Every structure is written in structure tokens, then in C-alpha cells.
Amino acid sequence: MFAKENIRKILSSYGNPAIATICSHSALQIFAGAKQEGFRTIGICTKDRMETYRAFPHAAPDEFIIVEKFSDALKPEVQKELREKNAIIIPHGSFVEYLGPGRIEREFEVPIFGNRAVLGWESDREKSRLWLEKNAGLRMPAKVSPDKIDRLCIVKFDGAKGGRGYFFASDRNELDEGIRQRIESGMVSEEAAKTASLQEYVLGTRYYFHYFYTPLSGKGFPAGEGSVELLGIDRRDESNIDELHRLGMDGGELSKRKINLSYTVTGNQPAVIRESLLPAAFSDARKVVEASIKLFPPGIVGPFCLETVCTPNLEIVTFEVSARIVAGTNIYADGSQYSHLFFGKPVSMGQRIAQEIKIAIGKNMLEKVVY
Ligand code: ADP
Fold first, then answer.
1. Is there an atom of ligand 1 within 6 Å of 168 CB?
2. What is the DSSP letter of 103?
3. Is the CB of 141 under 6 A from ligand 1?
4. Residue 141 alpha carbon, nearest atom of ligand 1
5. Half-sphere exposure at residue 209, Cβ-oriented, CA atoms within 13 angstroms
6. 238 lines ligand 1 (CB under 6 A)
7. Per the confidence metrics, is the pTM higher than 0.90?
8. pLDDT, tens digit, 9 for 90 and up, residues 81-139
9. Contact (Cβ atoms closer than 8 angstroms) between residue 235 and residue 213
10. Ligand 1, atom 8: nearest CA belongs to which residue?
11. N or C: fewer beta carbons within 10 Å in the chain?
12. How far is the CA of 110 from the centre of ligand 1 (A)?
């Protein structure tokens, strides 16, 4: 990993830090929040997107660094320019996707808000299970062996974007048949089929919790050295799975008509949960923070999201963690019901990130939140 010592040196050379990110995902919200807190903002952008990012004057970055493609942010000259402009990068989903967690950890020599070590833990299914289930003690969908299918399972393939090729199986025949069909139709390669993993399908309502862990303040729900704040909850629109019921067909008919399931996220909707679920939502977040501090100190810093299903028994089952700002927070550019209860005024996740950087600068503790 790019040594913390080097980041410390770069930070000590910074005058007035600026906030930078790639123009995608939640960048508008990040820039708007940074500007509200008085930061200069820099957008790493491709030419074709500039007009869009200028089209929201309140959120448009103060300056652009133009790249041909987003992964060019890794080029030494772009990194140098970012350092010269005193940039602190806010990582988001597209930033991690385009640059890759491994290369960000090893090669990206620009200060990043949050612990960059977390990226390797969230992107690896086995490691994230070790973190969430074994160390934090969260309930996750059970892993099911292909030889002992005793319940409805979702069959997943590694690296399947938008859940491409995922299907359901309740017994060995359905599993073998599903894999055979997918190889035959060319949707899944024989190689990818070997990575098929079976997970208990948890029936319930999906909720995506937006948390912020701060080691600098104890005002939220106590966790680790500081506290966790709940700043919002969303539900994702996933196409086409969310609308398939409108066809009124069962699984057999869908597959006869060669309709393939997809979980590609197309949008987000706001949500609140029953108030009696809040204690569990906070306690899960605390466990995740405290396990992260043990596994990869100083643990997760800043925004993260637990992706969950709430069962009819009101049990929260977590199927994934995103250890950075999630796009679902874009619903709340003007704050959410929960951030209102915390701040008494509208504060977005983007603004909360900028606030944390400002507080850290004020306390001379930037090193605690930037890695
Ligand atoms: P990806 O890694 O492509 O995001 P996920 O593993 O997150 O794929 O699954 C995509 C979607 O499938 C989720 O957003 C959720 O709607 C659904 N899903 C995944 N795992 C389960 C599960 N065990 N039980 C119920 N729904 C699930």
C-alpha cells in the first residue's frame, strides 16, 4: 500500500486543501457540499461530460482536469497536477470502479479521504464476509453448498456486472439446468460458471443505510473512538427485476420466454424504516466499525453503506457493504429525514464529508481522516 508516511509528507506541503473527485456517481453532491463548506473544488472530467457538470452552477467544480478516460487519473502527470493543486480525493463508486481498488491502494499517490485499505476488504466477497459475519457478527445470507441445497438460493457469478446471469435454484436439478442454459446461450462463460456461488435468497424489503463514522466527534451513536451518524436510507431501483411482476409470469414462464433477470441499478428512492428498527441499524453499524478497526486499523473512516434485507421477523440481514459514499445519497442533496434529526438543518453526505475535513484541519488532525 502507498505508505501513510508519504501521504503525511504530501499533506504537510499542502496550503489550502481543495476537494477533488471524478465527474461521475455522486460528484455533483460532493462538489456542492464542499463549496458549501468553503472548499475549492476540482473535477477530473472527460470532455464530453463538462457541459453536464457546468449545468448545475451550485455544484459545478471550480476547475476541471480534463482526461481522455477516467482511469487516466492514475497517470503520474495527473497525480502530480492533483498534488500541486493540493487536492484531497473523495472516493466514490465510479472512482473505485475505473481505477481499481488494488491500483488505488498501491499507485495512487494523492491523499484520499478515508482509509484506502478498506477498498480491498469491501471488493472481495470472502474478505467482506470475514469482516461483517465473522468479526462483526452480522447476520448475512447463508452460503449454501451445491450438494446440499435445502432452500431457495440466488446463484451468483463473480464479476457479473448488474447481477448478469444470476438466477434462482431450489435444488440441484434447477442449479445444473440454470448453469447449462446460461453457458449454452453464451451469457456466462464456462470459466465464470466455475465461480458460481450459492447464497440463501433472503425474502424481505431491501434497505440501504447511509452511515458516517467519525473518529473526531462523539455526538452520534457511540462507536470506536468516536461515533456513527445515520444520514439517510434509500431503496434501489433495479432493472429489470423490480418490474418483472408486471408481466404476471412465474419463474418457469420467464425462462421459457428467455427473459433474463438483471439487477442493474437505474435509480434510487428515499425510505424511512420503522423507528423500532433503528437500534439494530445503529448497533450493526457500530459492530462493522469496531471490527474494521481490529482488522485494518484505523478501520473505516467517513461514509459507508450497509445493504440489507429486512425479513418479516424484522431481522436485518446484510448482503453487502460499500465502504465509501454511495449513489443512493444523491436523493438527499438537501438532507434527509435522518440528517434533519441530527443537524436540525439540511446536510448532505457530500457536505458532511467536507465538514469532517474542515473539522480535522481545525484540530490539526487531517492525518486521522485522510490516507
Ligand atoms: P452486485 O455485486 O452485482 O451488486 P449483488 O450481490 O449485490 O450483486 O446482488 C445484486 C442484487 O441482488 C442486490 O441489490 C439485491 O437486490 C439482490 N440480492 C443479492 N443477494 C441477495 C440475497 N442473498 N437475498 C436477496 N436478494 C439478494
1. no
2. H
3. yes
4. 23
5. 29
6. yes
7. yes
8. 999 999 999 999 999 999 999 999 999 999 999 999 999 999 888 999 999 999 999 99
9. no
10. 163
11. N
12. 33
